[in-house]
User: Which sequence fits this backbone?
């Protein structure tokens, strides 16, 4: 018990322990505040008393615990009614027609207030009926955000939407009157008559009316409010959308795409209003605020919806090979959508049906030509036109079959000429990319030797100048998609090898050249013969021969397998062509030549390479009756000359004898 020494005493007093008309009491759970109307003060207990007749710790409104006079100053009260504390201390100083606010709990007696509401300064106490004046304010309350005051003499409740921080701040809302300048009493749903106490539970405001003998309950703005757009749809394909509103106590609504509700006006509340979105596709945010009949406003609610009326753009397919590929590529799809954005892609391959894929997609397709169709869906379900393209896949390596050389089980062959013939057929499936090139290397040389393929894929090539001993031929066939087939075989050369270069290395690879006839003869020791009638001679370097115009003439020898030999007869401007066989042997018959001198030139052609013209031999052709092979003709001719000489000697001796006689 406080204010009396025991439960049987009821005396008035103005001391640290006694009271005079305590009108209101409040505790924040730690401290105790008591407003004494007739002592014109508020006493503060820094902790809740636990014993009877406990003394207060602090007094405000008076300079000490023994004074009770009233005044209108910053530190004096006149009939305080109610108090409230929530971090700040609110005191209704009723007879001074004002509310005093302490920004912190006073810790010294007679502490001055920080803010005065209802008066322009701390020394004025006049009443009034405006948004800034009171007439006998009684109850005061705060929810930490707003301040509520029962203005008893004006039959109204004033609400401050924020706790005042300056003197003489105006109220924002009035309850019980149509405006801030009316003060008539009444007994209706909207009017008040002598309101005194008030309380707030955070959602509702409770007001006790002394003269109307009732308690009115006001919702602090509409409660349990929510709204959705198009039944919580994420996307809208029309500018006009439907809203679904739910609220308790809503009287008016404010809807806008602007968070500050610029240009919007309050409308009568409806649970299913419509709203027209601004032009232009994309995400839209709607803001909603509600208020009740007392003009208590809710917080601002917001919901988003995306306005989307256009389908996505056509899909761009990237990383699609422009020609044949030898593996399934990783494709990239891209499309744009100004409304809701791209949600997914779908692909249809060879009219096999549509399947959902990501923006990066690697198909698993076999060899062949494939038709791709791709379309994009946006997040609102709209679909683009289908983009179409072709994918050419050749996953199969080309194949070939060698007809030459003949290989044993160890993939090996032999030669005694330093040359071998490479022949066979290469092929790629007709529906695929086709053959690109055939080439080989010798003994891991960096030089690649290309082998020509005809339209049907057949090839024929003579590899020359193989070194003595064993060589490895690396044979490779590629198609246009880049698939490669490799095959190695070995060649044992038991004959001559390539010539030695000035650098002292064998002339393989880039230095391996096709030799002309005479050089080949000199390098290999293979004879080059010429047959005159039934007589065969070994041809020497640039040899000169005499023959008759009736002598049959043939040239024979051994050169590279399948090489072409061309003879040029300068005097006749005639060209003779023959081809060596698979062993390199050839023979060519010369036509009958007229009497005179004839120079013979030769060229060798192999694997698209042709040697320079070389002077092979000179033929001196005599008449047929002039036969160097006929000994009798030589004897008769010698006898004729001997007889002629004898006759001349006799004739000269006879004339000399006559002249002497």
Assistant:
């Amino acid at each position: 018990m406080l204010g009396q020494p025991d439960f049987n005493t009821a005396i008035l007093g103005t001391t640290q322990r006694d009271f005079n008309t305590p009108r209101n009491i409040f505790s924040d759970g730690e401290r105790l505040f008591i407003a004494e109307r007739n002592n014109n003060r508020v006493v503060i207990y820094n902790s809740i008393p636990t014993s009877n007749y406990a003394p207060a710790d602090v007094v405000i409104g008076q300079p000490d615990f023994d004074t009770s006079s009233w005044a209108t100053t910053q530190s004096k009260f006149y009939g305080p009614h109610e108090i409230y504390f929530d971090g700040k201390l609110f005191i209704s100083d009723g007879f001074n027609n004002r509310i005093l606010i302490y920004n912190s709990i006073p810790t010294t007696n007679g502490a001055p207030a920080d803010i005065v509401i209802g008066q322009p300064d701390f020394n004025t106490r006049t009443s009034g009926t405006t948004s800034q004046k009171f007439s006998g304010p009684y109850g005061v309350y705060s929810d930490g955000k707003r301040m509520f005051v029962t203005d008893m003499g004006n039959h109204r409740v004033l609400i401050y939407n924020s706790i005042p921080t300056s003197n003489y701040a105006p109220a924002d809302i009035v309850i019980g009157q149509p405006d801030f300048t009316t003060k008539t009493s009444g007994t209706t749903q909207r009017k008040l008559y002598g309101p005194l106490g008030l309380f707030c539970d955070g959602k509702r405001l409770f007001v006790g009316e002394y003269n109307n003998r009732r308690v009115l309950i006001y919702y602090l703005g509409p409660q349990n409010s929510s709204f959705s757009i198009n039944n919580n749809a994420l996307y809208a394909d029309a500018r006009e959308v439907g809203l679904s509103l739910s609220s308790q106590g809503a009287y008016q609504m404010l809807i806008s795409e602007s968070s500050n509700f610029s240009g919007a006006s309050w409308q009568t509340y409806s649970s299913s209003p419509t709203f027209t979105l601004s032009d232009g596709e994309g995400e839209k945010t709607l803001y909603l605020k509600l208020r009740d009949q007392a003009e208590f406003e809710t917080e601002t609610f917001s919901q988003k919806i995306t306005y989307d009326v256009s389908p996505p753009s056509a899909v761009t397919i990237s990383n699609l090979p422009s020609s044949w590929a030898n593996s399934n590529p990783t494709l990239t799809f891209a499309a744009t959508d100004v409304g809701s954005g791209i949600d997914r892609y779908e692909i249809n391959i060879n009219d096999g049906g549509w399947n959902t894929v990501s923006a990066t997609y690697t198909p698993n397709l076999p060899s062949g030509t494939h038709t791709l169709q791709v379309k994009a869906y946006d997040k609102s379900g709209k679909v683009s036109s289908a983009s179409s393209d072709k994918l050419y896949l050749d996953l199969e390596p080309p194949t070939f079959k060698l007809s030459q050389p003949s290989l044993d089980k160890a993939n090996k062959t032999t030669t005694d000429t330093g040359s071998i013939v490479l022949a066979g057929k290469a092929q790629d499936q007709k529906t695929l990319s086709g053959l690109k090139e055939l080439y080989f290397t010798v003994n891991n040389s960096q030089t690649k030797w290309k082998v020509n393929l005809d339209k049907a894929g057949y090839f024929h090539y003579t590899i020359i100048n193989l070194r003595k001993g064993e060589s490895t031929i690396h044979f490779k066939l590629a198609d246009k998609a880049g698939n490669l087939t490799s095959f190695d075989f070995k060649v044992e050369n038991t004959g001559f090898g390539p010539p030695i270069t000035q650098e002292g290395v064998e002339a393989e690879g880039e230095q391996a050249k096709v030799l002309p006839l005479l050089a080949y003869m000199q390098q290999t020791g293979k004879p080059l013969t010429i047959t005159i009638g039934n007589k065969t001679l070994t041809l020497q370097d640039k040899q000169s021969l005499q023959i008759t115009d009736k002598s049959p003439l043939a040239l024979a020898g051994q050169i590279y397998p399948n090489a072409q030999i061309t003879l040029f007869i300068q005097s006749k401007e005639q060209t003779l062509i023959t081809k060596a066989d698979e062993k390199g042997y050839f023979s060519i018959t010369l036509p009958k030549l007229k009497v005179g001198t004839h120079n013979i030139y030769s060229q060798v052609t192999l694997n698209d390479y042709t040697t320079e013209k070389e002077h092979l031999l000179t033929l001196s052709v005599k008449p047929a009756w002039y036969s160097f092979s006929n000994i009798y003709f030589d004897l008769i001719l010698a006898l004729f000359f001997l007889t002629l000489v004898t006759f001349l000697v006799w004739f000269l001796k006879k004339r000399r004898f006559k002249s002497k006689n």
Remarks:
- The longest strand covers residues 368-378.
- The helical segments are 517-524, 631-660.
- Confidence is low (pLDDT under 50) at residues 500-511.
- The two ends are 211 Å apart (CA to CA).
